[in-house]
Design goal:
The chain contains 18 helices and 16 strands. By secondary structure, the protein is α+β, with helices and mostly antiparallel strands. The chain has 4 domains: about 230 residues, Bira Bifunctional Protein, Domain 2 (BirA Bifunctional Protein, domain 2, 2-Layer Sandwich); about 80 residues, no CATH class; about 55 residues, no CATH class; about 90 residues, 3-Layer(aba) Sandwich (Rossmann fold). Strands 1-5-6-11-10-9-7-8 form an 8-stranded mixed β-sheet, sandwiched between helices. Strand 12, helix 15 and strand 13 form a beta-alpha-beta unit. The longest helix is centred in the first third of the chain and has 19 residues.
Length: about 500
């Protein structure tokens, strides 16, 4: 049996992981200068949190989430036939005292189960040979197994819902000023794996929550994002911008859009046809070539914004101009998640083929209230797809700098080993990366291994050096070789390292 990582999920190995660390470190540094602090979130949350926040009609919630039923460890496994009566009584107690989810599904199944059980008991005669009874028993088994013993949990497909959940749970709206949080970590979506699209992928994101929805905040969030991209030297970052209205003007626009879409329904593919009813904004997102001409003629949200939204958008554009930030407007940029309103944006980068969006973001003023928090709290944020960011950097020729090893410490003769161990410790304490062979190697082999490991220096410790209380140090790039005392060796290596 050979094990492999599951489909759509991958390992990130050294030296590539060093580039990941550099990118994440740059994010930490840049975000800190804008006053953001890190929030570390759970990887799994109640399924209901995402259904609520993201919206049931989105691709993410309707088909991409990894959800499972949790079961409190003390709850029993389903019973065998003979135990069904006592088990049903047990289920009733658990439902009453909240040990199992008190939802409508569970209530309905329990009522049906009690009914089926009573019918079954009421029948006289020898049950073991009656086929109808076997069917009844089978049906009871199905009902019994359908009872959810624990809550539904989901591996997070994104993190904004969790950030808002945490913001409410910890009463963070009482903190002074705006609450500025960033996060980084894995997200999970059941998608068709391809370049730049994985089932476990990574995001670096930030959220600003607070009482104000001033466009200067939107502009500063975007400025921070672009400052980060500039810091890591991302090539060809292009900012696309849109405003998708709010609860005053969007519903009317959506109705208008739906009306127009119904008229051209037969020119659209099955996905778009379905979305006319479920989520018409998403039709604008379509990449199907044959739908483009039709979509271009649809009504545009910019012409249907209410005054407040139009002013907000105009001020955002002024604020961006003031910061020298270039953007392109894209009226079809609606984003995949329902909670966005007003400002939406996306950033693309080069070298990524069709999965070229490295970041999506926008304003979500109603979300805090939707999840049970204070109606006054507004929010804006973004999520960067780290996998795609790294891919784009690599396509542009970036690799992690720093050689893995500074010193390969080759020792020869058992009596030299304790000195080698002590020297390795001293070097490592000073931040020098050392490779120390566990067993004695032949001279030629050890130097060739040092070379293949990419070590910059080989330090050689043989009987001769031991007797003279010296070390031979060889610079592998040019073969320069010298004999030094321990003090001089430390000084030499530290100086070389700093250079
Ligand atoms: P797409 O349109 O590419 O599916 P999305 O709108 O679903 O993206 P968001 O939910 O806005 O993406 O997430 C923000 C960013 O996260 C995206 O711009 C992208 O860089 C990244 N991302 C989203 N899904 C994946 C995935 N399955 N694999 C890798 N990166 C992803
Ligand atoms: Mg997607």
């Amino acid at each position: 049996m050979k094990f492999q990582a599951i489909k759509g999920v991958r390992d990130i190995l050294p030296p590539e992981s060093a580039l990941w660390n550099q990118v994440e470190q740059a994010a930490r540094e840049v975000f800190a200068t804008y006053g953001y602090g890190e929030i570390r979130l759970p990887i799994f949350e109640p399924a209901e949190l995402f259904a609520r926040a993201i919206g049931g009609e989105t691709d993410v919630v309707s088909k991409e989430m990894y959800s499972f039923e949790d079961r409190p460890h003390e709850l029993l496994a389903p019973p065998t036939y003979g135990e069904i009566g006592p088990y049903i009584d047990q289920l009733k107690t658990w439902l009453e005292n909240g040990r199992i989810p008190q939802d409508d599904d569970n209530k309905f199944r329990l009522v049906s189960l009690v009914q089926a059980w009573n019918d079954f008991k009421a029948k006289p005669g020898d049950r073991s040979v009656d086929t109808n009874d076997l069917i009844a028993v089978y049906q009871m088994g199905l009902l019994r197994d359908a009872v959810k013993l624990g809550p539904a949990l989901t591996l997070r497909p994104e993190a904004t819902a969790s950030v808002v959940r945490a913001y409410i749970e910890h009463g963070m709206h009482t903190r002074p000023g705006n609450v500025k949080l960033y996060y980084m970590g894995p997200m999970f979506r059941r998608e068709r794996p391809q370049k730049g699209r994985y089932r476990q992928f990574y995001q670096i994101g930030a959220e600003l929550l607070g009482p104000s929805d001033h466009p200067a905040l939107d502009a500063e969030v975007i400025e921070m994002l672009l400052a980060f991209f500039a810091r890591i030297d991302l090539k060809g970052a292009t900012l696309y911008l849109n405003s998708i209205g709010d609860r005053n003007c969007r519903p009317a626009y959506i109705e208008k859009l739906r009306e127009e879409l119904r008229k051209v329904k037969d020119q659209l593919g099955p996905d778009s046809q379905r979305r006319i009813e479920t989520n018409p904004l998403r039709v604008l997102d379509s990449k199907l070539p044959e739908e483009q001409a039709v979509i271009e003629k649809l009504p545009r949200i910019a012409e249907h914004l209410c005054d407040a939204c139009r002013e907000h958008y105009a001020e955002l554009k002024r604020q961006l101009a003031l910061r020298g930030i270039a953007y392109e407007e894209n009226w079809r940029l609606v984003r995949g998640l329902d909670y966005y309103m007003r400002t939406t944006f996306e950033i693309t980068a080069t070298g990524l083929g069709s999965q070229n969006a490295v970041c999506g973001g926008g304003r979500y003023d109603g979300l805090v209230e939707l999840l049970g928090g204070p109606a006054t709290a507004k929010g804006i944020g973004f999520a960067i797809g780290t996998d795609r960011l790294i891919l784009s950097l690599e396509e542009a020729g970036q690799a992690a700098s720093a050689a893995a090893i500074d010193v390969f410490l080759a020792w020869f003769g058992a009596e030299t080993y304790p000195v080698a161990v002590a020297l390795a410790r001293k070097l490592r304490e000073r931040g020098v990366a050392v490779e120390l062979p566990a067993v004695e190697m032949k001279f030629g082999k050890s130097l060739s291994l040092a070379d293949r490991l990419g070590a910059r220096y080989a330090v050689i410790l043989g009987e001769e050096e031991l007797a003279a209380k010296q070390f031979t140090v060889k610079r592998l790039a040019d073969g320069d070789q010298r004999k030094l005392s321990e003090t001089d060796l430390l000084a030499y290596l530290l100086e070389a390292r700093a250079a």
